[in-house]
Write a sequence for this structure.
């Protein structure tokens, strides 16, 4: 089975299919791990906090991986990550949904009034809800049918992912009250990725 073409120095279609399957399996691992830990009772003294923290972290991880696709193409000439961008983005939405469900069900117990109060009074909740709203919109318009329907409007719409990234990073930063080391690392990584959109590549992209 040939997964790499030495002549074109790029992944073959077979290689890309295997890569997408591997990415799909890898993306499910954090959620599966949480399920197993839940059954084993190893989510810690505060299971809700563990669920909230882990799902939030993985939302940011997949958001950053999604945002890294364009720089990899422009600066390293890697075109194969483009085939994974939709999968990565949908995993960001998936873990954001788990994060939101944890908050609504286990933290607020479906209390709509308290949720609205939280959105209004707490900036980190406001930022988190904004990020989720954008991810929801992007997920709903990520199908081939919606891409065809939106036409030229699709790309400008999906640039909102940068706003989602900023809102998600601020949500994490404002949530943490003491040690901001980890949220700061996400903000730095996000700033680096955003800066690549403001500068042009120095060399012509080349397939690898």
């Amino acid at each position: 089975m040939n997964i790499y073409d030495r002549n074109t120095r790029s992944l073959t279609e077979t290689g890309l299919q295997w890569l997408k399957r591997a990415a799909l399996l890898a993306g499910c691992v954090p959620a599966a791990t949480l399920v197993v830990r839940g059954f084993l009772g190893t989510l810690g003294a505060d299971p809700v906090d563990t669920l909230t923290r882990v799902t939030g972290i993985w939302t940011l991880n997949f958001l950053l991986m999604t945002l890294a696709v364009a720089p990899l193409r422009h600066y390293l000439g890697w075109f194969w990550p483009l085939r994974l961008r939709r999968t990565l983005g949908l995993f960001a939405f998936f873990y954001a949904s788990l994060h939101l469900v944890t908050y609504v069900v286990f933290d607020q117990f479906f209390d709509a009034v308290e949720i609205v109060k939280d959105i209004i009074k707490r900036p980190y909740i406001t930022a988190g809800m904004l990020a989720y709203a954008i991810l929801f919109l992007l997920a709903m318009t990520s199908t081939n049918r919606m891409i065809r329907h939106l036409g030229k409007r699709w790309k400008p719409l999906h640039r909102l992912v940068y706003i989602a990234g900023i809102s998600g990073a601020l949500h994490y930063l404002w949530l943490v009250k003491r040690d901001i080391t980890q949220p700061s690392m996400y903000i730095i990584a996000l700033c680096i990725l955003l800066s690549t959109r403001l500068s042009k590549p120095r060399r012509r992209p080349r397939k690898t």
